[in-house]
UniProtKB/TrEMBL annotation:
Residues 1-14 have a biased composition (Pro residues). It comes from Hortaea werneckii. The lineage of its organism: Eukaryota, Fungi, Dikarya, Ascomycota, Pezizomycotina. Residues 1-34, 145-174 are annotated as: Disordered. It comes from the Eukaryota. This is Methyltransferase type 11 domain-containing protein.
Length: 302
């Protein structure tokens, strides 16, 4: 089955609501056992990797700082393209991860060289600040080029929001160039705290990329996620970013969920699905012409 190079449609502005985003009700907070599975299908993963290859920070010149990517709500795989893994191994890109399960995170190859990960539950009361999470976990072991990186707690706008330990006030510590989060935004119970604190950690011009599908664990997703349709979910995630202070918010469709034939009609013809496996799947009542739909809601810090 061929996979179109994403984005499948041009991005457009997110339609924001006028009412403030309210903190969703709390959900089940227990940490599940490790699960070494993927939560979107192979076609969606391939589309996401192709998208990341287009938008994530490129390898910079050796005279500049290495870009840094944070994978939020991470697990044993991050779906990055091979160039990111190669750059991490060469020390040209640094990737950090925050997740819920240590056994999953330690299996992720992108954190093994030149990066770091931390276990943190962003849904716990008072734990929705990404800067505090990074400082309490990753920054205990990861060192920047000028010594240990420190990120201060949130402070009034008249005070510096980030400061490196042992440095004079005014020195700028390394911050994030990009953040990714794959099919996990629907579980966040403190989204405004998470995304406003993430904005403070991000360099001007840095970006956030929130991948959304139609799959979820119903017992863990916030209540409103289960009540609204896919379009309203995308709008809600866009509102999270908007009210957290992000700019240039867009929705990118990577897949509408249909498998298209060579003529682009969505029939699946020309893809080897009309006989053999495709016929067998249809005999079982399974739609061989469907794949996981996938979108990215993204924003930029200006």
């Amino acid at each position: 089955m061929s996979i179109p190079t994403p984005p499948a449609t041009p991005p457009g502005p997110t339609p924001h609501t006028t009412s403030p985003v309210r903190t969703p009700p709390r959900t089940q907070l227990s940490t599940p056992p490790p699960r070494f599975v993927t939560h979107i299908d192979d076609a969606a993963i391939a589309s996401l990797r192709a998208y990341y290859a287009q938008v994530l920070p490129p390898v910079v010149s050796q005279t500049g700082p290495s870009p840094r990517i944070l994978d939020l709500c991470s697990s044993w795989t991050s779906h990055f393209p091979s160039r990111i893994y190669d750059a991490v191994g060469k020390g040209e890109v640094e990737v950090w991860g925050l997740g819920m399960n240590a056994r999953e995170l330690e299996r992720n190859p992108v954190f093994r060289d030149g990066g770091g990960w931390g276990v943190w539950d962003l849904n716990r009361e008072g734990k929705g600040d990404v800067g505090v999470a990074v400082k309490a976990t990753i920054l205990k072991t990861v060192r920047g080029s000028g010594g240990e990186v420190e990120v201060g707690s949130p402070s009034p706008s008249t005070q510096p929001q980030h400061q490196e330990a042992g440095k004079e006030q005014g020195d700028t510590p390394p911050l994030l160039d990009a953040t990714t989060c794959v099919v996990s935004t629907d579980y966040l119970t403190q989204p405004l705290s998470v995304f406003s604190s993430l904005l403070r950690l991000t360099k001007p011009g840095g970006s956030v990329h929130l991948t959304i599908s139609n799959r979820c664990f119903p017992t863990k997703a916030i209540a409103r996620w289960l009540r609204v349709d896919e379009e309203e979910r995308l709008q809600m995630v866009g509102d999270y970013l908007f009210f957290a202070g992000w700019k240039r918010i867009e929705i990118v469709e990577l897949s509408d969920g249909r498998v298209r034939g060579s003529d682009g009609d969505g029939s699946g013809e020309g893809e080897g699905e009309q006989g053999g496996l495709g016929a067998f799947m249809r005999a079982l009542g399974m739609d061989a012409g469907r794949r996981d739909p996938l979108w990215v809601v993204r924003g930029v810090k200006e």
